[in-house]
Amino acid sequence: MSAQAPTAEKTRTAAPRPPAGFPFRFYRYRNYVVFAATSVFMALGCVGLLEALYALGRGEEAWKEFLANMAKPHNLVLSLVVLGFTLYFVLRFAWVGRKIAAGRIGPIPRPPLPMPLLGVAPIGGFLTLWLILLAILAGVLP
Amino acid sequence: MELRKVKFEVLRFRPESDPEPVFETYEIDCMEDWVVLDALNAIKDDVDPTLSHRWSCRMGVCGSCGMLVNGRPVLTCAAFVRNYEGTIRVEPLSNFPIVRDLVVELDGFIDKIKSVKPWIIRKIEKDLSEGEYRQSPEQLEEFKQFSMCINCALCYAACPVLANEPEFVGPAAIALAHRYNLDSRDEGNAERFGVLDSHDGVYACSFANECSQVCPKHVDPAMAIQQAKMTDFLEWVHILPKKSFT
To answer: Mind listing the domains of chain A with CATH numbers?
Structure first.
């Protein structure tokens, strides 16, 4: 057989090893795991929101019952945890936005705005709208 | 020149005899200006000729000598021994199957690089007599950073997504695809769209940013991936044209 001919079987290899410190010992990998975990808690938040809408649709009595249920200590703690994970997601997303806007996108020319500002603008706008909406819901704004 | 005794823990794997990789310890005299690669070569030359590791240029250009040194993916030709204290642990790149000792199997990595078609694709190739494709310095600047990749695979060793999803196309391949998509001479973004937009493409990245931290050429693959996500989305909603002719 020629030296150039491929061998029938490949050499036995050892299994790939995970990166050192993965998943919890190295802080950047830990951040990654927490970021992935936000999806679970944000899904819980969405379920809560659907439950609220469902209660709202069934009349005042059901809504009051829903509010009383949400005021229970374990639901308050869960809501805080969901809020914490949601905020973490938003902050990390803002960090991504900073990188997205660093260059040209396809044939769209580089805009005249300073790049960091452009990166923060979409997420900043989103957060501002979110706060305005919350303020309206809370009755602070008309 | 002053010599310093340094202990190295090197991961060994001999497929013909070792069921699993094991650490072996070597203690050698290192010179002040040695890098970890020099120490590995000294071990191979003077202590244990069976030690296997890859290297070539010794100047951070070829990308062959990437390994984990004390858990961090680095080019061993650029990792000075004097910058480490105590025992230095050397392992093959993580996230890759180990062929022997510090040598990893790069077939999957090369396949991923090839899958994004990292070359200039033209609808109609010009005849050589018509001259080269011209490009201004500004146009070059758009993608130059992403063209600095030396395929050392350190970013793959650092990527936590690849540890969970081995099929992920990965930082270097996506950065390379983005580099060609940004190139004013290229007309082939539609050819790469299928790979970047796939389940294992850009959206598998959740931006741990570790690839950019370890990149020895400051390519910033994490930035390339996030930009590629935006470009992919704009192509998907047809805001950006997909140049397709196949």
So the answer is: 27-102+110-137 (1.20.1300.10)
